[in-house]
Amino acid sequence: MNYQKHSLNIFPEMGAEDFSRLKCDIEANGYDKSQPIWLFHGEIVDGWNRQRACSELGLQPVYKDFDGTEMEAIEFVMRTNKRRNLTSSQWAAIAVEADDIVKAIEEATEAARRAKIAERENVSNQYSEKVEMAQLIAPSPKTSQNKSKSESRTKIAKAFNTNRSYISDAKRLRIENPEAFKRIKSGQATITQVKKQAQIKKAKEDYTKAQRVDIAKNKPVVHKMSYADFLPTLQDNSVDLLITDPPYSTDVEDIAGFAQDWVPLALSKVKETGRAFICIGAYPKELQAYLGVLLAQSKFIVDNPLIWTYRNTLGITPKMKYNLNYQVILHLYSEDSGPLDTSVTNEMFSVQDINAPDGRLGNRYHTWQKPDELSHRLVKHASKEGDKVVDCFACTGSFLIAAAKMNRTASGCDISHENLLIAQKRGCDYDQV
Length: 433
Description:
3 domains; alpha/beta; Rossmann fold; three-stranded mixed sheet; 13 strands; 433 residues; ten-stranded mixed sheet
């Protein structure tokens, strides 16, 4: 017969690895009858995992009734589970639940005591007895109550191998984020991780809100279309700046065919006085594919490739080849193009040294997202207010948002609904036709 878990058994089930070890031990050595499964009011207060293991192995464990009060039972649960292999965050979550149970038991005990006193008062009219009862019922001073609560929290923290700060955090999270509290108690997350995730979420919300405000009066438009459908909607020689970040050769099987398909079409939309930036991966096959297409056309001059390098990402220690910490930006211009606006000294060179977007700062939406600073630089360098800026692989809208902030007319397309929803959240108008 299998028993249900008692509400006083507040410990989480063992993780898969620990439970597997327990089960293997019981299977190899048999059930240790000196370790009974304890029942309180017909339900398990200690030994839930052992019952699970025995049930799966087809063994009959030993059950024993716990003879004591509720307070004694919860103290027993705390004492017998103190060696459990749990994180400090889990202990804090358990301590919060234990604290509630202890308070509920104390309140019930106090209520029973008051009821008994009231009953005695009803059958006794002696003055001395009334004075005694009044003293018993009188509440403790506030300072004494606060001290008692503080001591209680410290005692529970010590009993559960955690600290008062973690317990306070766990108590708050149980109210504000019940799902996170469950993950903490089960060991799927720690309090530090949950707090960090909350900080990142808030940072991203603040960052996104600021972007929406910046482009509220000049929203870029993004269309759910492929480049093959979007580019023909533009007039030839109508775009002042093409700036885009197409899929890399790691995501495109025939990168040469892909480059040949979209680049000539896109360049046909750019004015002869305009410019273009094409961000590509720094892979030999990809470089060859794009340079082959660009060097074969005569409308624009192919500049020395720009390098965007980032220093805030680390990889494994290289053995056979160097780690890649840069991407290539192909720059096209003509003799009729306007001069570059590069008045800042460190922006004048082919190498643009800017950290990649960092999820911890809330400014990263996509794996290959370009940093806002780079987007701002390129748009500022190669266009002016009122210019038409186009991105035919808009993704989450970084280039278009940068253009809109600087009072350019910006539009683009992407085939990913998920990415365009992020662009919309960032302030772009999303045309889902």
